[in-house]
Amino acid sequence: MRKKTRQVTIGRVVLGGDAPVVVQSMTNTDTADYLATALQIAELARAGSEMVRITVNTPEAAAAVPKIVEHLERLGLDVPIIGDFHYNGHRLLADYPECARLLAKYRINPGNVGHGKKRDEQFAQMVGFAVQYGKPIRIGVNWGSLDQDLLARVMDENASRPQPKDAIEVMREALVTSALESAAKAEELGLPGDRIVLSCKVSSVQDLIAVYKDLSSKCDYPLHLGLTEAGMGSKGIVASTAALAILLQGGIGDTIRVSLTPEPGGSRAQEVIVAQEILQSMGLRAFTPMVAACPGCGRTTSTFFQELAAEVQGYVRAQMPAWRAEYDGVENMTLAVMGCVVNGPGESKHANIGISLPGTGEAPAAPVFEDGAKTVTLRGDNIVGEFKAIIDRYVARTYQRKINPATHV
C-alpha cells in the first residue's frame, strides 16, 4: 500500500494524497534558446512527461521563460515547467519576476544556495519568492553537492556516539537531515507544508533505497524519486528500475524521473518511456497498450515475429494520442506477438489480442485470438497490415468513446 503523503498541486498536476505517481523529465537544451527548449519540452510532454524541469542558471535563461511558456501555449500544451536553480536563484527570481510568476515550481538545492550566513539568507529569499507567488518548491538534496557545514556537523555528532556509524551511513544521514531541516526552515519562513516536495538523490541503487526508506519514515512530504546520474543504455535503465521498483513496491514515492544519458543523437524522450514502463509493469499506472513478445529460440528461426512485435509496439505508441483523446481505457489493452506453437496460442489467449506466428516446421498460418477466443487465421504477405487493422477494429468496438462537450447535446 502506498504511503499517504501531503497533497501538493503543481500547475494542473497533483502530487501525493491519492494521486497517481507522476512522471517527470528534464530538458538538456540551453534554456536561453527558448525555441529549442520549448520544442524539447513539447517532445517530452507528448511522450507522456507530466512535468518538465528546465535549467535556470543565467539572466538569459530566466528571461527566456516567458517566451518558452508562450510558445507552448501556441502549441496547445499545458505542462507545468519547473525551474532548476543553483547558486544564483535568489538573484534571478528577484530580477526576473515574470520567470518567477510563470514557473510552476522551483527546485532548490540546499547545498548550492550559498555558504555560511549567505546560505540561510539566500535560501530565505528563494522561499520568500515561492510564498509571494504561491509556488511550491522541491528541496532537492544531492550527495554530489551536499552542504559541507551540515556534513561536518553530522560527522562530529557521529564521532561522539558510543557506536559510530560507518562513513556511508553518515552520508545517508546527512542527506536526510539536510532535506528535513530545510523543509522545516521553509515552513518557518511561511511556506505552507502542502507546497513542499523533497528528494535526496544519489547514484547508487542501495544508497537510494536506504535513504528514501529513512526519509519516508520521518516525514509526510511528497517524495520525488530518481538516481541522480543513472547512466546510459541498459545500465541506466536497469539501475533505475532496480531502485525505483523496490521503493514504489514499498509504497514510497509520488513522482519519478529516470535520469538517463541519451545515446548520441538519441531522443531525450526515452527517459519518459522508461519511467512509464516501470510504473505500468508494476501495475501502478497505465499509459499505452503493453505488447508481450517471446524472445525467440531454435523453434523461431524466422525474424518475422521480431519485426511484427516491433511494428505493433511502435504502432500502438504512435496511435495512443488519438486513441487517448477518443476512447476511455484503451491504455489498459494488452497484446501478444508470439513466435511458435509452444506458448503462442496460450499467451495469445491471455492477451486482449494475440497472434501466434508459425515457428520452424509449422504450417504457414498465424491464428489470432481476441479476449481468449480464436477469431481468424492470417496467411500471406500482408499479415502486418491485417493485424494492425484487427487492433483498430478491436479498439473501436471495445472501448467507450468519450463525449465531446462541444457536440454533445
From TrEMBL:
GO terms for biological process: isopentenyl diphosphate biosynthetic process, methylerythritol 4-phosphate pathway; terpenoid biosynthetic process. Pfam families: GcpE, GcpE_C. The keyword Oxidoreductase applies. It catalyses: (2E)-4-hydroxy-3-methylbut-2-enyl diphosphate + oxidized [flavodoxin] + H2O + 2 H(+) = 2-C-methyl-D-erythritol 2,4-cyclic diphosphate + reduced [flavodoxin]. GO terms for molecular function: 4 iron, 4 sulfur cluster binding; 4-hydroxy-3-methylbut-2-en-1-yl diphosphate synthase activity (ferredoxin); 4-hydroxy-3-methylbut-2-enyl-diphosphate synthase activity (flavodoxin); iron ion binding. Gene3D superfamilies: Dihydropteroate synthase-like (3.20.20.20), Sulfite Reductase Hemoprotein, domain 1 (3.30.413.10). It comes from the Bacteria. Its EC number is 1.17.7.3. [4Fe-4S] cluster binds at C294, C297, C340, E347. Pathway: Isoprenoid biosynthesis; isopentenyl diphosphate biosynthesis via DXP pathway; isopentenyl diphosphate from 1-deoxy-D-xylulose 5-phosphate: step 5/6. The keyword Protein transport does not apply. Residues 5-275 form the IspG TIM-barrel domain. Keywords: 4Fe-4S, Iron, Iron-sulfur, Isoprene biosynthesis, Metal-binding, Oxidoreductase. Signal peptide: none annotated. Its cofactor is [4Fe-4S] cluster. Binds 1 [4Fe-4S] cluster. Residues 291-392 form the IspG C-terminal domain. PANTHER family: 4-HYDROXY-3-METHYLBUT-2-EN-1-YL DIPHOSPHATE SYNTHASE, 4-HYDROXY-3-METHYLBUT-2-EN-1-YL DIPHOSPHATE SYNTHASE (FERREDOXIN), CHLOROPLASTIC. NCBIfam families: ispG_gcpE, PRK00366.1. Converts 2C-methyl-D-erythritol 2,4-cyclodiphosphate (ME-2,4cPP) into 1-hydroxy-2-methyl-2-(E)-butenyl 4-diphosphate. Belongs to the IspG family. This is 4-hydroxy-3-methylbut-2-en-1-yl diphosphate synthase (flavodoxin). It comes from Oryzomicrobium terrae.
